[in-house]
Structure formats: structure tokens, C-alpha cells
């Protein structure tokens, strides 16, 4: 039998998946498996026979079936595969618009992140999630990247800027020019703040991110610059990944005072 045939055998029945998971917990007899997995005893017996044929399970002298090392490996890899598929499905909207920046994401990071997606009945869900994460109290450190001009983003950043806050924001040249045109007074006030540094990159930005007081966030936009999805988390691996993304953009930027015309 080929590996493809073995996989087809396992996924061809929910009872086979359930029996594999049950055996991963403890050895069982066919009757106990049938009761635990809500299937007929004959189904449990046929499944066990199939597992034994493939070297995944073995019958002990006391009549209990247990997974072999090979069966344990199949179970662990299968569960990981299921988690990967579920994560890809859950984050499909985000991945559709932010595929490039996710290519080098460490394994498992996306699975640790919350996902907020714009929907017909709640188109502003990602924005509301962003505002919740930023909060309304002064923060210690704020590092952000934005590919759009947004009054809401400007006001949320201003609300958390305290006397001791260290705030750094990176935009591309297009966003810089639009910001100067749309909000000239706010732009000049921000430049006068000692706690705030605006940096500009010559690269066209198509995603946003934020690292604020131990929380990381990455946002995806469609071709019309609409915020479509946002992923965030405070696990150390998540924050480290977002920080790496931020530094990769920062390395291409310069403070606005050093920007060449």
C-alpha cells in the first residue's frame, strides 16, 4: 500500500480518526472503542485490522490494542495537519491579502494569533479590534507601520502618547504626501513632539503592523486599501515575529528629517 492509500484509508471514515485518537490516549478493546467512538463493534474491529495491517497498532496478550511507534507518529502528524488546515481556513482572508509577509513566519506562529475579519454584518471589526488593542491609556512603547492615511489611526495614536512614551511610525512616501495634504496641522504637531519619530520608506507598503507594550498585530488590506483582516497576539513567538517584520521595514526607512526631496 502506498502512503496516499494509507492516508485515504484514515480520512475515509470519521470513526477511523476517532479510534486513532482514542488509542493515542490509552490501549482499548474493540468493544470499548466502539462505545467510546460511537460506532459498531464490527466497524471498530475492521478499523483495528486495518491499523494492524499498516503497522499502526498491535494487539497485546491481554486483548487490548495499542498504537505502535509508527501509529503514534501517524497520529501526531495527522493532528498537526488538521490544525494547519483549520488555521489556513480560519485565516484565509488575511492570507489572501498578506501572503508575502507570512512566507517566513516561524511554524506555529499564525496558529497562536487571533484573527479578526471584516464581514458584511461587521465591516469595521478589524478596525475595532485595532482600537481595542491600542487602548486609550498612555503606553510605554509604540512601533507602527501603516500603508494608509487614516484619521482614526492618527487619533488612536495620539490618545496613547504620554510624556514617557516612545513612539515610532513608518509610512511610505505616498502616505506621507497624502497625510501632509489631508492633515497639515496634525502633521506639524506630531513632528514637534520629542517622543515621536516619523520614518519614511521608499518602498510601497501594502500591510500594516503594530508592536505596543508586549502585543503584536499585523493587518491586511485589499487592492482598494480597505482593512480586510487583522491578526494579533501577545505570545512571545508572536511578538518576536511582528518585531522582525517591523525591523525589516525600518531598515529601509529614514527619519523624515533625513528624507531626500
Automatic annotation (TrEMBL):
Stretches assigned to the HVO-A0261-like N-terminal domain: 4-90
Domain Methanogenesis regulatory protein FilR1 middle, chain residue ranges per copy: 123-251
Alphabetized InterPro entries for the sequence: FilR1_middle_dom, HVO_A0261-like_N, WH-like_DNA-bd_sf, WH_DNA-bd_sf
Pfam family, one: FilR1_middle
Protein name: HTH domain protein
Organism: Haloferax volcanii (strain ATCC 29605 / DSM 3757 / JCM 8879 / NBRC 14742 / NCIMB 2012 / VKM B-1768 / DS2) (Halobacterium volcanii)
Amino acid at each position: 500500500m502506498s502512503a496516499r492509500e494509507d492516508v485515504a484509508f484514515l480520512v475515509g471514515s470519521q470513526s477511523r480518526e476517532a479510534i486513532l485518537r482514542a488509542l493515542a490516549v490509552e490501549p482499548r478493546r474493540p468493544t470499548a472503542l466502539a462505545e467510546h467512538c460511537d460506532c459498531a463493534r464490527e466497524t471498530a474491529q475492521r478499523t483495528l485490522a486495518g491499523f494492524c495491517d499498516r503497522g499502526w497498532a498491535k494487539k497485546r496478550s491481554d486483548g487490548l490494542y495499542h498504537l505502535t511507534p509508527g501509529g503514534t507518529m501517524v497520529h501526531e502528524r495527522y493532528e498537526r495537519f488538521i490544525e494547519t488546515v483549520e488555521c489556513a481556513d480560519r485565516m484565509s482572508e488575511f492570507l489572501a491579502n498578506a501572503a508575502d509577509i507570512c512566507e517566513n513566519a516561524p511554524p506555529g506562529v499564525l496558529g497562536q494569533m487571533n484573527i479578526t475579519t471584516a464581514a458584511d454584518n461587521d465591516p469595521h471589526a478589524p478596525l475595532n479590534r485595532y482600537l481595542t488593542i491600542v487602548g486609550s491609556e498612555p503606553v510605554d512603547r509604540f512601533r507602527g507601520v501603516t500603508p494608509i492615511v487614516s484619521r482614526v489611526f492618527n487619533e488612536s495614536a495620539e490618545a496613547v502618547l504620554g510624556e514617557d512614551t516612545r513612539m515610532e511610525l513608518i509610512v511610505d512616501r505616498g502616505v506621507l504626501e497624502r497625510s501632509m495634504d489631508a492633515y497639515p496641522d496634525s502633521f506639524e504637531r506630531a513632528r514637534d513632539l520629542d517622543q515621536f519619530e516619523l520614518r519614511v520608506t521608499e518602498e510601497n507598503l501594502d500591510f500594516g503592523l503594530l508592536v505596543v507594550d508586549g502585543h503584536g498585530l499585523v493587518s491586511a488590506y485589499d487592492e482598494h486599501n480597505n482593512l480586510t483582516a487583522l491578526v494579533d497576539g501577545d505570545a512571545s513567538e508572536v511578538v518576536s515575529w511582528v518585531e522582525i517584520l517591523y525591523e525589516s521595514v525600518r531598515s529601509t526607512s529614514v527619519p523624515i528629517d533625513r528624507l531626500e526631496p
